[in-house]
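To make the argument concrete, we let one protein speak, a sequence paired with a row of structure tokens, as a model reads it:
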Amino acid sequence: MRFLSLCLPLSLAPTGALAEPFSGQPTETFVLPSRLTGAAPSSLLMYAQQDYFVGNFTGAIIETYSNFTPPISSPTPPGNFATGSLMAWIPVTQFYYSTTNTADPTRNAKTCVWQFAVAIDSSGVCTGTLNQAAYGDQGPICTIDSANSYIDPVSCRSQVVTYIQ
């Protein structure tokens, strides 16, 4: 993750504990279910569409930051979704987080951190793995929507739906 934080524009680079989001913090890992979308088959190195949705159920406005361009939309009022869509070279690892307090995201806030990795195995099948961690002393609950998140095993197209509350 050290390399990742150097790649981010200075204004988006995570600080403090978010620079190493999964060291020393309890995490959850989720393997995205496979769902065929009808998109073109993948090759060993290719572009694939990635769609991101972050539901805000915190009762406060959230800001969302990512290591990819275009970024996920921000700020996001309560009850709405931050969204992002991009084409990414596969294999790829993406990082994003949402917080209610950009000045102190690891303490006086509700903050969820997600890391999404897409890989292609030796038989050409795409897989997606999502890691998440919660920060802040306001009781954040981070959730992965397993019914609406998926990866196409043929084209590597993915949709990741997460919630912060």
About this structure: DSSP finds one helix and ten strands in the chain. Residues 1-13 have pLDDT under 50 and may be disordered. The radius of gyration is 15 Å. The beta strands are 27-31, 46-56, 63-66, 81-90, 92-99, 111-120, 126-135, 142-144, 150-151, 158-164.
